[in-house]
């Protein structure tokens, strides 16, 4: 079974250390949102674990923009290894969907 966008986000966020995850949430709260979307409220991210944050990203930005937002935030906080891994995993997901 192919991984969902939430699965990919969760895997990526769980791989971040505690400090990096905190930075990710802080930058996500300040992230410039795509037109037609709302920023995730700060109180929704405070105290949120990786699963909560993955769900919030999907809920606020839909699956079609969730990976793009996460990639942008990862790059902005300098987490290039996590960025590259998520980018590669999401490309594999797109390829798997295209083959169906």
UniProtKB/TrEMBL annotation:
Residues 1-92 form the Pyrin domain. This is Pyrin domain containing 1. It holds the Pfam family PYRIN.
């Amino acid at each position: 079974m192919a991984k969902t966008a939430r699965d990919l986000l969760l895997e990526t966020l769980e791989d971040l250390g505690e400090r990096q995850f905190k930075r990710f949430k802080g930058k996500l709260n300040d992230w410039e949102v795509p037109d037609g979307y709302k920023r995730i409220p700060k109180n929704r991210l405070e105290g949120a674990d990786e699963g909560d944050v993955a769900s919030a990203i999907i809920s606020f930005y839909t699956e079609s923009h969730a990976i793009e937002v996460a990639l942008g935030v990862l790059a902005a906080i300098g987490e290039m290894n996590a960025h590259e891994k998520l980018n590669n995993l999401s490309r594999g997901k797109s390829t798997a969907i295209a083959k169906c």
